[in-house]
Amino acid sequence: DTAVSQTPKYLVTQMGNDKSIKCEQNLGHDTMYWYKQDSKKFLKIMFSYNNKELIINETVPNRFSPKSPDKAHLNLHINSLELGDSAVYFCASSRMTGNTEAFFGQGTRLTVV
Amino acid sequence: GESVGLHLPTLSVQEGDNSIINCAYSNSASDYFIWYKQESGKGPQFIIDIRSNMDKRQGQRVTVLLNKTVKHLSLQIAATQPGDSAVYFCAENSGSSNTGKLIFGQGTTLQVKP
């Protein structure tokens, strides 16, 4: 039983393509996040949603569009992929937006060629 | 600006020894701190957290110490085991307690020698 699951695990695509990463959590949490981890392992928050409502948008290019059809799902769609988008993207969830730990998925390694 | 840093990028310890991983943060408004462990090919895994009204918190084989005066956080792992080998991240909420936003440090790689 995977608590936070994201698909695909690996994604290799050409520049200019549009791709989506899906995320689902079965923990009953209200808040979900997308983080980006670069080649130096630096983790940075991109977005967070609470009960399908956007809470955080960290000056991410508008080529990135999160979508939350319900509070258990937060998908990430990326348009016109660029080489610099290559990274590991992590989905996470937490019980609430307050001071509480976030549970992370296994990550999606995106490689843009 | 916001930053959370770790003093050493890599820490190598002998199996059975205690490990101490340090972290400095810059935002004095931060009131929640958390340590994560990330094994190769996996997502970060929660280890322990601490709120700013505490200076010490203990878990199973782990202890987190918080010194707000010098804005310093440390993670102590007792009797380090090979399974503890991973990258360790500290994170702070940077005062954003109503958003869940966490600012992560750059990570320390812990290598456990048998």
What does this structure look like?
The complex is a heterodimer of chains A (113) and B (114). Chain A is an all-beta fold and 113 residues long. Chain A has strands at 4-7, 10-13, 19-25, 31-37, 43-50, 53-57, 64-70, 73-78, 87-94, 103-104, 108-112. In chain B, the strands form 2 sheets. In chain B, strands 2, 4, 5, 9, 10 and 11 form a 6-stranded mixed sheet that branches. In chain B, strands 1-3-8-7-6 form a 5-stranded antiparallel sheet, with no helix packed on it. Classes of the chains: A mainly beta (113), B mainly beta (114). The A-B interface holds A 4, 31, 33, 40-45, 48, 50, 55-56, 90, 92, 94, 96-107 and B 31-32, 34, 36, 38, 41-46, 49, 51, 87, 89, 93, 97-104, 106-107.
Topology:
The complex is a heterodimer of chains A (113) and B (114).
Chain A: E1 4-7, E2 10-13, E3 19-25, E4 31-37, E5 43-50, E6 53-57, E7 64-70, E8 73-78, E9 87-94, E10 103-104, E11 108-112
Parallel strand pairs in A: 2-11
Antiparallel strand pairs in A: 1-3, 3-8, 4-5, 4-9, 5-6, 7-8, 9-10, 9-11
Chain B: E1 4-6, E2 10-14, E3 19-25, E4 32-38, E5 45-51, E6 56-58, E7 62-67, E8 72-77, E9 86-92, E10 103-104, E11 108-113
Parallel strand pairs in B: 2-11
Antiparallel strand pairs in B: 1-3, 3-8, 4-5, 4-9, 6-7, 7-8, 9-10, 9-11
Key phrases:
heterodimer, A: 113 residues, mainly beta, 7-stranded mixed sheet, B: 114 residues, 6-stranded mixed sheet, 52% strand
Shape of chain B: globular
Distance between the termini of chain B: 40 Å
Q: What is the straight-line distance between the termini of chain A?
A: 33 Å
Biggest interface: chains and residue counts?
A-B, 28 and 26 residues
Q: Report the C-alpha radius of gyration of chain B, rounded.
A: 13 Å
- Counting copies of identical and different chains, the oligomeric state is heterodimer
Biggest sheet features of chain B: 6 strands, mixed
Mean model confidence by pLDDT of chain A: 93
Helix run count of chain A: 0
Give the structural class of chain A.
Answer: mainly beta
Portion in helices of chain A: under 10%
Largest sheet of chain A: 7 strands, mixed
Strand content of chain B: over 45%
- State the low-pLDDT regions of chain A, or none: none
Q: Give the topology string of chain A: H per helix, E per strand.
A: EEEEEEEEEEE
Content of β-strand of chain A = over 45%
What fraction, in percent, of the residue positions of chain B are helical? under 10%
Low-confidence stretches of chain B: none
**On the 0-100 scale, what is the average pLDDT of chain B?**
90
Strand and helix order of chain B: EEEEEEEEEEE
